[in-house]
Every structure is written in C-alpha cells, then in structure tokens.
Give the backbone structure.
Amino acid sequence: MMKYLVDNCCYIQANKGLFLGIFITSVTLVAVACYFVFDSGDSTTILLYFGTDLLLLSMLCVVVVAVFVKFQRLRFTLRTESLIVDQSLLIIAVFGVFVLECFHLVSALHSINAGGFISAMATAAAVLSFAQV
C-alpha cells in the first residue's frame, strides 16, 4: 500500500484551518436558516440565498487555491503499500461530483435566458462551484 508521510512542519497552524472550517459551516447553517425563516415567496429570499452562496463560494475558492499552493511545498515520502481501492473510490466520487456540477451548470445556464439578476447570480454560483471541482 502507498502511504504518504508528511513532515512535522505546520501542525501548530492547523488550528486556523479548524476554526475557519467551523466558521464556514456556521455561516452556511445561518444562510440556510435565513432562507427558510424569510421564505415568503418574493425575490428577497432568493437574493439572500444566492448572495450568501456566492460569498461562501468565492471565499472557498480563495481557500482552495491557497491550500493548493501550500500543498505544493510539502514533502511527501511514498511508502510501498498500495491504496488502489481508496484511489479508485476517490476518482469515482470526484467524477460523481463533476457530473452533478455539470447538471447544475446546465440548469443555471438554461435559466439565464429568462434574464434578471437572480438567474445571473445562479449562474455565477454554478460557475464558482464548478470551478472548485
């Protein structure tokens, strides 16, 4: 099995990522709660939902790029054991998320013909979530 060993370079900074993850989860839960609390059928609820969705997605895109850059500096040591099953399951899961985001993007692009600010926000949210995959 292939296992990766990471040097003990930045375990102290792991608390930042933990608390940032808890913060993002809290903001997401508040956004979902606000959507259901303010659901009155008008466009204000949908604007609130897509506004918080775009804010979270743009923040997460910045975090994904920062983590990708940081991971490039880490040194990995490859062990001889193989993780073929784990790698196969990860590839299948990423492919499933990719297909889901493709359908989300197609539906958002189809609704942009209706025009309006909400459909543009839906398309921007779909593009940002597709970019994260």
